[in-house]
Amino acid sequence: MTYTRVEYISVHISFLMLFLVTLLNPINLFYKVDRPDHFSKTSMTIASLRTTGFMITRCLQTKHLPLGNLYESLMFLSWGFSMLYPISDVGDQNRLSRAVMAPSATLTHAFATSSLPQQMQHSTSVVPASQSHWLMMHVSSTSISYATLLCGSLLAIGLLTLFYSGVGSFSVVNLEHNFQKQISISPPNPCNNIRIQANVQSYSYLLLLNSRKCQLINCLDKWAYQTISLGFSLSTIGILSGAVWANEARGSYWSWDPKETWALVTRLIYATYLHAKIDEKQMGEGPAVAASMGFFSVWIRFLGVNLLGVGLHNYGWLVRR
């Protein structure tokens, strides 16, 4: 059996497993049934192993780490999402992180296999200058940092969505104010007692709903911070190793290439988020807005520069089309 056939089987089985896990996400998130949860974990394990098999096959075929083109980079990114899936399960009783990892892995995998032309999915050889160990460290750590930062940003986007939707704390405060006012001015009679009892039930319901909402926001905020902190550290390793390789290959650590510029922009955005979380201990929409901006910055850095064919870090897909 040829390498191409093995790759084809591995990639399509991996996508099928990822798709099944994504379909089961709502059940695992809201109902927490043991059997679908176990099936999701097993399916994600199979998907991770199959994607790992694809990358090993590419390594044997090309004699280098499978990050030589956009297709391989996207598959590596999808693999990073799938590897973060079991890690995120540790300590996350609400399974919120897993609800982000599975769709991210599926969509990235689908874009790589369905949207890119066939000629971009074939293995390619790299020039000798690109076979440096520093470059391999740079590309691998940067790709994993992409996956981690994107997951953290998606959690922050979920936090913002929850923060600005449904019942807010102001609703509870207003209801409490009206309830106390009604008690103070209402004479004691059966009709007023029924009305006050109805307001008590409404106030209790809103208070319980708001409490659960706050707990969910706290959980999202915690996991977004921890995930982005990890991704920021991996991004640091990627930038430093890339600078060392660039100095060896081009004689300069930094050349203000478009992708390098966007790397700086992305880093400043996430540094702003971490600064707000560490120094001021803020929670809520402020830092989450910065993390949400980082989501778009990462995709511009990863896909926008690559596809438009600008600078040294590109695959020129849109230009060739």
Automatic annotation (TrEMBL):
It is a multi-pass membrane protein. InterPro entries: Cyt_c_assembly, Cyt_c_biogenesis_CcsA, Cyt_c_biogenesis_CcsA/CcmC. The keyword Iron-sulfur does not apply. Keywords: Chloroplast, Cytochrome c-type biogenesis, Membrane, Plastid, Thylakoid, Transmembrane, Transmembrane helix. NCBIfam families: cytochr_II_ccsB. May interact with Ccs1. Required during biogenesis of c-type cytochromes (cytochrome c6 and cytochrome f) at the step of heme attachment. This is Cytochrome c biogenesis protein CcsA. It comes from Adiantum shastense.
